[in-house]
Amino acid sequence: MLFSLALARIGAVQSPLLPLYRAHETGQVLRRTRAAFFAAPGVRRGFDHRAMADRLAAGLPRPPTVIDADDTLPDADPAVLPPPPADDDVVRWIYWTSGTTSAPKGVLHTDRSLRTAGHWLGAALRLGPSDIGSMAFPYAHVAGPDYTVMLLEHGIPAVLLEHFALPGALAAYRRHRVTLAGGSTAFYALFLAEARKLPPGRRLLPSLRLLAGGGAPKPPALYHEVTAELGCQLAHGYAMTEAPMVTMGDPYDSPGHLAHTDGRPPAGMEIRIAPESGEIALRGPAVRRGYLDEPAPFDADGFLRTGDLGHLTPTGHLVVTGHLVVTGRLKDIIIRKGENISAQEIEELLYRHPDIADAAVIGLPDPERGERVCAVVEQPPNAGELALATLSAHLLTQGLARYKLPEQLELLPALPRGATLRKVLKQELRERFGGGGAG
């Protein structure tokens, strides 16, 4: 975090990468950005990021200079620094999202867009001087600067964790009397699971007043479970890498709105719903400026087409028509623990295995993860039967990040396809395998 903030202070263009990324994802980013410097954190949680950085750099036509990023900054007089950047509307941030295709999309942000999102988030959550926050997700996620701006604006402290896991993180949360926690739907479920291990009447985190987050759909029943069993409020929002703050639940809103919606947008964020399809479109100062080397899906009025479906009530809340706030997705992605995973990216790597003739990767409902990754495979004649461990080993050798690995494998003689375009019928696969566990 300190390294990133120092780069921001001198006006450098930076592209934060999730520590979960491995050679496949990191190599794509290096080739796309043509970065001059690559800051690697060394060995973290048993993985040597510096060694990976050196290998990747050596294979590029114009190798970046690899430097150590251990958050240790030299002692120096701030007075000798150049003036801070004067133009807040220059693109200085490139964040990455899986989106709909195998190649990651570089999302272009400015200081103004990120600062606006953080300001809106703090206002929506109604922070006070006695609040103590917590950051359970990587700072390199687009929510990192979002949350950091919120903390700085309100002058409140936060517990930062190298790695979030329960029950291990609870001791620090209790010691520092955290009042604000969360991250995504999967985090809410993790806290609930720990609370259910306690004797009746005992609160998991007595100081906690609010769980807040976004990044994945929230079942309405989960709201009622959190408020009843954790003894705190739950405010869920709608956001994406392209717009880190779109809507957020108001902790003082009605239980009906908090359970069944993602809240309302702040002043300055415009939401338009396409009358024919129900697709959500956005316009406002927190919306990203474009994609790196790709056309941006803005309409003629400057609204960003999100590929997400939903609608608004007369009160301006984004609401459900079924059991999810966002009623459907045009994008072929899987949202696992709040992280977007491209199905096509995994499918293209699976095709390289000699015992796979065709493959479809789908997301299936999962109470802990939100969605789990399931690979449905069609094998060529006379191929040996695949096991999930063999599949995972193949993907790891291709450099895929571990958090994207399938947790369920299903084998079919032939994938179901449409009669005309022969497109794989993924909805049929979701209905068939949605009730199963990991295979």
From TrEMBL:
Residues in AMP-binding enzyme C-terminal domain copies: 345-417
Bilayer-crossing regions: none
AMP-dependent synthetase/ligase domain span: 4-292
Gene Ontology molecular function: any one: ligase activity
EC class (word): ligase
Keywords: Ligase
Pfam (any one): AMP-binding
EC number(s) reported in the record: 6.2.1.-
InterPro entries: AMP-bd_C, AMP-bd_C_sf, AMP-binding_CS, AMP-dep_synth/lig_dom, ANL_N_sf
Keyword Heme attributed: no
Sequence similarity: Belongs to the ATP-dependent AMP-binding enzyme family.
PANTHER family per record: ACYL-COA SYNTHETASE, MEDIUM-CHAIN ACYL-COA LIGASE ACSF2, MITOCHONDRIAL
Protein name: Short-chain-fatty-acid--CoA ligase
Gene: fadK
